[in-house]
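Readers outside the structure-tokenisation community will struggle with the description of the input data as it stands. What matters is that the chain and its backbone geometry are given together, residue for residue. For illustration, here is how one protein appears when written out as sequence plus structure tokens:

…
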Amino acid sequence: MTHRFFPKNEQGFVLLETLLALLILSLGLLLITELWQACGQMERRTQTELLLSRRAFSMIELTRVSSTPIVGTRTLAVAGATETTEITPDPASGLKRITFTYTWQEGGRTYVQRWATLSHETQPQQGAGPHAP
């Protein structure tokens, strides 16, 4: 007496079913790979933005301490970014607006980050400080 576990017309996977399963698996792996790359790009962009934000904060603090910030455009080591400093005086309030603009390219796109602060228009004092005579 022979026992059959499968009916006569269903004896296993057909070639079409196997190919369809492989196609679905391949698409799933491709999607995971794309997501992995997108996460890596987002992490690099976020890291660049964080470093440039720290730089901008440091420059703003340095500007508050010093009376004459460095004006112009500089290339930074962070992602090949450029830093542009502009000063716009406001005679009505007696303040000056100092704007730091950071521009960099990543993945064929251009990103811009701007930071601005208001500062008193002061002149450097000669002989000021703890070591002044």
